[in-house]
Amino acid sequence: MQRSPSPTVPQRRRRRAFTSAILTIGLALTPLAFIADSASAAVPQFPDNIVIFPDRDFVSVEGYSSHEGEVALVEVTRAGVGVVGSARAEVSGTDVAFEVNHPGGICWGAGTGLDVTPDIKAGDVVSITFPDGSRDTTTTSSATVTQDMVLDSATRTVTVEGSFGADVNPDFLEQRIIQPDLVDLIGRRSISAIPGPLVPAPKGGYSSSLEFPTPGTFLATYVFDTLNAAQVAAAASLGERAMSWEVQDVDGNRQGLTIAEFGEAGGPGFGGCPAGPGDQGSPTGTASVVRSGGSALVKWTPVAAVPTADPVTGYSIEAVGAAANGQQTTQGVRVGPGVTQVTLNGLDASASYTFEVRSMAGAKLSVPFALGGGATGDTTPPTLTLSPAPAADGTAVEANAVAVASNGQVFFTTDGSPAISGDLPSDNAQLLTGTSIPINAPTTLKIAAFDQVGNFTLAEGSYTPVVVPLPAKPTGLAGTATQSSVALTWNNDSSVNGWQVTVYNATGTPLATQPPVTTVPRQTVSGLSPGTTYGFTVKARNAAGFGPESDLLTSQTNAATDRITISTARWKSGDFRVVGTGDLLGAVIQLHRVNADGSIGPAITGATAQVVAAAPPGIGDWDIRLRNGAAPATNPGRIYARSSAGGVAGPFNVSQ
């Protein structure tokens, strides 16, 4: 049963600089390393996210408005197997960039040819890659509900049990029940339990807790104000969810999110999507047959293997004659998995045949890919035209591609060798699957077009790529600074295929000479020193090479804030103590409660301390302890620490 996903955890929107490509710069005294997004992958940063629904084999890509209009590649990779699912889609620029295997979205295999819906499992890595090489990943979590929820009518209590592996941080785990019928009873369709003891829901109607009775297991408990609400919640069909995430930022945004939906079924999310892992497919790429008298040359494109199915062990090729007296004659061969063409001899030159190509996985044959065989008697050669046409005197014609038009099947070579051998395509000839042949270097094209009875037309010519002038220097270079980075943007130029940024120190000395190339007009230089002035230039690249650098842009990074941590936090009646570290002596630390949405809440009265010197050098300690009447009356639950110098630590669970 397929349903629309419920909203993920409410997240506060905030602005951020473009991060389509990132350059990492060390301190001025150390060698610098430039690293584009394509060189490393990480959990997405808010407002971008990858949300995995493994039970439905469904992925939701959120945000990425900075890549609006770009075509992104989503891949599901399994350890020891490789890519088991993929799709390409255009980023919408709205809150949901696109969805894979969900109504209104795209199917697995869209734009990639890997036509299989992957059975997404715990540990599978779902990645998104953009044209500039930047890449984010989410690893599918092992957290899951393990059985139907249980209702205790006497206590109005509903419990949900589940399990998780070592990959899950229990603090980054939440259990939810989705039941639309609860709206009329408690004012909401979704109820949740987060780590900690039983506490009332902020808007009332029930109390909940999430505890871990044994390592690797969780127990969510819901106590409702009314028996009716408890009974309605327990009646939810496919409503028990385990939500876990890899990273939580200081604003409480949950990144790298997996939502396991107990009882949901996987497979194609809507009509027309490919089936799940199973049998290998037939070679349904391009295939062709060229007949000459009593023989036929059959060519095909190998199967795009389904990673989780049995491997292809070969191909079966048969010529099937027309039915006579209720019977059909067949003649064929079987070949190994690396073969892509075969000649069938001994055919009746006057008969018509259908040629079938099947893939084999052991003794199991795929559905056939049938090709019409035609009949003899036609002596009209096929048409064949090239654009631009070859020069009559044999000189090279400038072109980046040669368009080919024919009413036959076209075979060609680009190394000057013949495209035809006798009256059949040569062993070196390639079947033209599109409408043009790219010219990337001086090339001698030899082309043969065949019809289905073996008639052919030949053409050849010399071509060389169009000479392209160097691009002009880029304009509009601007930057937005943070403490350790500067996000650069410049005017786009559709005639170029990349840009290269150079970084200078305040004296004009280049800090690196070979940064990566970005294919979009933006790049973020990170790893910079706070409060420091840097210079930046950018130059464009096309087929002819790099053009001149832009005018120099100077930008100063923001001043640094201090860094603080929370080491321990404990509460018991009449005694509340929190201990941590800080790197700025004299800074004042104030403790705050955590709001229901995970953001920093109100200050805890009297919970302040100053960072004092401690070993090792450069690190300080702070210690806040409230006793008796000064201590909070109940366990604060989760807390943040905030420094007077700007540093923040948390959220942190207070133990009891």
From TrEMBL:
The keyword Hydrolase applies. It comes from Nocardioides aestuarii. It holds the Pfam family fn3. InterPro entries: ECM_Regulatory_Proteins, FN3_dom, FN3_sf, Ig-like_fold. SUPFAM superfamilies: Fibronectin type III. Keywords: Carbohydrate metabolism, Glycosidase, Hydrolase, Polysaccharide degradation, Repeat, Signal. This is Fibronectin type III domain-containing protein. The keyword Hydrolase applies. Residues 282-383, 470-560 form the Fibronectin type-III domain. Residues 1-41 form the signal peptide.
